[in-house]
Write a structure and sequence with these properties.
2 domains; OB fold (Dihydrolipoamide Acetyltransferase, E2P)
């Protein structure tokens, strides 16, 4: 099993990165988020991989970090969700945002991903929400904390909004649509602005 690849990025295409290692070019199916992280052709890159063997093909999937690989592997456990759908989801959503949506039970937001219908989105939430919480029982009282490391700003914003009287189910869809690199203050400001528009 190939755990990871470290080499030179020699070619890219939509959802595809070719990485040359020791004179061999490995074609990795991947997400748009990983392609952005890898950067330009010629860069020295590393991806974590998952090989999928079917009767008619052997495909290698590569991801810029372990969080995205873990989300991909988790999605593959959902009945009816294949590698193509998983890549599509993780092209639209970062691992942090994906965990936010699943932990909060927001299946509606998942339907915005191309190729993911209402039933598939509901199945993803139904089958993965408990897995996220069981993997860390301490998150039972605050599902949003199931987001992977680096999402502290989201947690701070959520807590502050709760103090202001907003319910988690109200603000979660708004937060999930914002840039996770923003400060908690900015996240709060943009959420309140969006909630104000909804109230009109």
């Amino acid at each position: 099993m190939i755990y990871s690849l470290h080499g030179i990025l020699i070619e890219t295409a939509p959802n595809l990165a070719v990485i040359e290692c020791g004179g061999v070019g490995y074609a990795c199916r991947t997400t748009q988020n990983t392609l952005s992280a890898l950067g330009s052709v010629g860069n020295d890159v590393k991806v974590y991989t998952q090989m999928i063997i079917r009767e008619d093909a052997v495909e290698l999937f590569g991801f810029a970090d372990k969080n995205e690989l873990n989300c991909f592997q988790m999605l593959l456990t959902v009945s009816g969700i294949g590698a193509k759908a998983a890549v599509s989801i993780l092209s639209d959503l970062t691992p942090n945002k994906f965990a936010l949506l699943v932990a909060s039970g927001d299946s509606t937001a998942l339907t915005k991903v191309k190729g993911i219908g209402k039933k598939s989105a509901e199945r993803i939430v139904l089958e993965l929400k408990d897995k996220l919480l069981k993997s860390n029982p301490s998150l039972q009282d605050m599902p949003v904390s199931a987001i992977s490391a680096g999402a502290d700003n989201f947690s701070e914003a959520l807590a502050a909004l709760a103090v202001l009287g907003y319910r988690q189910e109200e603000v979660m869809p708004v937060l999930a649509g914002l840039d996770e690199t923003l400060s908690s203050e900015k996240l709060i400001h943009l959420t309140l602005k969006a909630m104000g528009r909804k109230a009109k």
